[in-house]
Amino acid sequence: MKENSFVSADEIRSAFSAAMSVMYREEVPAYGTLMELVAKVNADTLAADATLKDRLEATCSLDRISEERHGAIRLGTPAELSMMRRVFAVMGMYPVGYYDLSTAGVPVHSTAFRPVGDAALKRNPFRVFTSLLRLDLIANESLRAEAEVILRERRIFTSGAIELTEKAERDGGLDEADAERFVAEVLETFRWHDKANVSTDMYKRLHDAHRLIADVVSFKGPHINHLTPRTLDIDKVQALMPEYGIAPKAVVEGPPTRKCAILLRQTSFKALGEPVSFRDGEGAWKTGSHTARFGEIEQRGIALTPKGRSLYDRLLDESRRIVRPAADGSNAKQYEAALAQAFGAFPDSWAEIREAGLGYFSYSLTEKGRQTKLAGRRDIDALVAEGLVEFDPIVYEDFLPVSAAGIFQSNLGDGAQQEFVASPNQKRFEADLGVAVLNEFDHYAGIEQASIESCLQALSVAMAAE
Ligand code: OOG
Ligand code: NI
């Protein structure tokens, strides 16, 4: 096979993301409603903010926004996780970051599979927050052993998906027909199954141990549990949700409302109880219900440097020590006030954020810069001061563990709050995954540095051409 007949990984990812969106819209109609609401708010926001629209256009980021979404799945075994990694690699998605959620009472640890590199992100930033169940955190040994047997016996990938993944690995890509088949086959892994793998009794025992365990172990596959569109104004979407018949969770996770958006703000609507059937003897089924799938929206802001991130973590911690948001929303106002108060200490202009070294920026030449020729190299700060170079925030592409825990919790219900001994185990996770996860900070620093180099080069090329 000639290499040039391959479809790019970016194309496959885009096709997969679109197919997943169509499937989820059919499966969970409220997701379609949320998409409409987000599209409307984004259009209104852009119409009212010409500068924002200009900057998004200038950084080639406008097109990706309406396409943008992330999803989440929960896997049951190391073998499933490592196969999932190989499947995502065909779509140009790689594991970035390690998230330990045991501290938040959720027996999983996770990574996010996503494209890496500026060009791939601009083409389509589709990501999947992927968790692996930690049966080691389950106290009941016999239940743990039974769950292991159930998980070991299920097959979450179709044979077509496995074959095509192996083919892509062997040949270095897939041609158009294979890529199309790959997308259809892989979609099957994420599909909802209304027939459980287990009896009502087993489901109840798993559920009593932890709702999340029941969700992972009881079904044939790791159904996609939400798909999240990106909004440019999360407060507005949150306020409008009830008008569209959707009840949002009590508080928005992440930083408070600010002029300069940092990291990630997220909110969701609660998971819906859905009818499922449980095994009831040979070929017979018994009707029941299961709660797993929900909707979420997010607003993405600037990626923070380690220094910015530790300031964020400290301020979030501070506000949560004053008010811990209750799941029923009873102290939502107090929490918002405490959050806003604490984050007063985080600079709120791009210039200050840049000067304090709190965020990552992408640099480009201004009109004046494009017409200037410079002798010798200059420091980037000097070029900014002289008005030759301008800077735009680099978007945060990852997730936040405290926010993720809040999203998990709001969907597991109040009764599900459970204490585990905090036990991050990145080494174990990476052994199960089959590779080390990438470090998010390295990636942002790389994009920033590349933009600086290209400014410096353009200025000195101008000089050489003189
Ligand atoms: C994942 C929850 C985390 C996010 O956006 O932080 C998440 C899950 O419920 O499986 O999706
Ligand atoms: Ni999410």
UniProtKB/TrEMBL annotation:
Keywords per UniProt: Dioxygenase, Iron, Oxidoreductase
Cofactor (UniProt): Fe(2+)
The UniProt record lists the keyword DNA damage: no
Recorded coiled-coil stretches: none
Listed Pfam families: HGLS
CDD domains, A to Z: VOC_YdcJ_like (cd16348)
Molecular function via GO: dioxygenase activity
EC number: 1.13.11.93
Similarity-based family: Belongs to the 2-oxoadipate dioxygenase/decarboxylase family.
Annotated PANTHER family: 2-OXOADIPATE DIOXYGENASE_DECARBOXYLASE, PTHR39479
Protein name, per record: 2-oxoadipate dioxygenase/decarboxylase
Organism: Sinorhizobium terangae
